[in-house]
Amino acid sequence: MLWLKTFHILFMMSWMAGIFYLPRIFVHFVEGKEAGQDVTRLATMAEKLYKFMTIMMMLAIGTGLWLWFAYFPLAKDMGWLHAKIVVVVLLLVYHMWTKRRMLEMQEGHLDHSGVYYRWANEIPLLLAIAILILVVVKPF
Predict the structure, then answer these.
(1) Are 121 and 23 in contact (CB under 8 A)?
(2) How far apart are CA 25 and CA 46, in angstroms?
């Protein structure tokens, strides 16, 4: 079971790396476009990063479900796990939000400012902090 946990953490870290970096590409895209720069390479980078982080997301979710079902008989005493699952669902919603933005980039536009995408980039950090607290501290 420790190997499974190790891979779950590895896949989660890889997913989070992508989910932290993709909005930074949005910032550079918007600000580069405003400055009159060619931003087509950023759209390509965003598409490739999104594909990578989606694979990592699927592996993280898959190993997470495997762990959950392995410990399912204990799940009644694991309120923290149910809360973690809620936060992971919020991360999935954010992941889908980044997909919409990435598709907008492919069309050649993003509809908000660089400041907006900088602030949006803080959402997964807050969610990651919540997950870490739930998993490590297990407050309930």
Answers:
(1) yes
(2) 7
